[in-house]
Amino acid sequence: QVQVVESGGGLVQAGGSLRLSCAASGSGFSINAMSWYRQAPGKQRELVAQITIIGSTNYADSVKGRFTISRDNAKNTAYLQMNSLKPEDTAVYYCNAEFYSDRAYKYSWGQGTRVTVSA
Questions:
Q1: Partners of 15 in the beta sheet?
Q2: Separation CA 98–CA 52 (nearest Å)
Q3: Cβ neighbours around 39 below 10 Å, total
Q4: CA distance 50 to 44
Q5: What DSSP assignment string belongs to 48-75?
Q6: Is 81 helix (H, G, I), strand (E, B) or coil?
Q7: What tens digit of pLDDT does each residue of 49-101 get?
Q8: What gap in Å lies between CA 68 and CA 55, rounded to an integer?
Q9: Residue 89, SS3?
Q10: Which residues touch 95 (CB under 8 Å, ≥6 apart)?
């Protein structure tokens, strides 16, 4: 199967920036879409940004203009550049990788990386 590992979280002041990385690995699999989700305390997990294998992107309204998702297909790695961070961006950020196996699309999640934005 596919393993997903996130990194890059941390503590930052409001207005600051962080860059998250998501590395997907798995022998013999082709990674399709890669997505970033987040889950704040007491809230449901929500989609933050997604990028397809050809580079098409979409973003949650709350992060448009501040966050940028990108990927390096050769490394099966996705990035989330987060600028102008706000306290409401505080959450655990999870990466999701879509891949095709056994004639079906499947999904793998990482363990999450915590982002804390102080006021």
A1: none
A2: 9
A3: 14
A4: 18
A5: EEEE-TT--EEE-TTTTTTEEEEEEGGG
A6: strand
A7: 999 999 999 999 999 999 999 999 999 999 999 999 999 999 999 999 999 88
A8: 12
A9: helix
A10: 4, 6, 20, 22, 24, 34, 35, 36, 37, 78, 109, 110
